[in-house]
Amino acid sequence: MSRTPSQRLVSQTSGVLNTPPVPSLDSQLAADVKALVVAGHRDLARERYDELVARLQRRAVRIAFHYLRDPHDADEAVQDAFVKVFVNIRTYRDELPFEAWFTKILVNACLDTRKARGRRLQWFVPSDPDSAGGAALDPPAREHSPEQRVLADERAQQITKAVGTLPDRQRLVFTLCQVDDCTPAEVSQALGLSEATVRVHLFRAVRKLRALLEHVR
């Protein structure tokens, strides 16, 4: 039976709408790494993974520095995230965007680094500035003492702690939109959500963060 022009148009349109999105280069590289690991070719997988790391490095450092405000801690969190991604690459689902999976791991690594920093600072014992020779041992003026770093970083700690309380989906949407400068449309495509859903998650995340930070002023 022949189809009318309108039926043919509907059929063609449905085909376009049902066409799966083309995976990004990062997602393709991640899928290649996973396939090589599963096949037992770990050396080849590491070589392929190096390409992925090179593509993600700058973006990862930018996100980590936003959360940690310290170059050393940011680098530590980024390296930790890259290690976790490779170790757990078998769990990556090829049909999902790699960028979102990686960002979630990176943000969690930043939160872990922040907690570790807090534990280290608990054991810090400041030197007595009135002790003999104390003035001669003072660090150069251009460097900040640990006490000054803690005070200057207090607000950043409060923000990071507040972000850590967000549900996973809200935290991921907030990071992609506010830190990685993605548009709601880009986040929608990356996460497989409608743009309206992305905007709802972002609105709820920002509202919750404002409420939490209002109480710590």
What is the helical fraction, as a range of percent? over 70%
The topology string of helices and strands comes to HHHHHHHHHH
**Beta-strand share of residues:** under 5%
Show unreliable segments. 5-18, 121-142
Description:
The radius of gyration is 23 Å and the shape is globular. Helix 3 packs across helix 5. The protein starts with a helix and ends with a helix. It has 217 residues and is mainly α.
Q: How do the helices and strands line up, and which of them pair or pack?
A:
Layout: H1 5-17, H2 25-38, H3 42-68, H4 71-87, H5 98-122, H6 146-152, H7 154-164, H8 168-179, H9 184-191, H10 195-214
Concise summary:
The protein has 217 residues and is mostly helical.
Task: List the defining traits of the structure above.
217 residues, mainly alpha
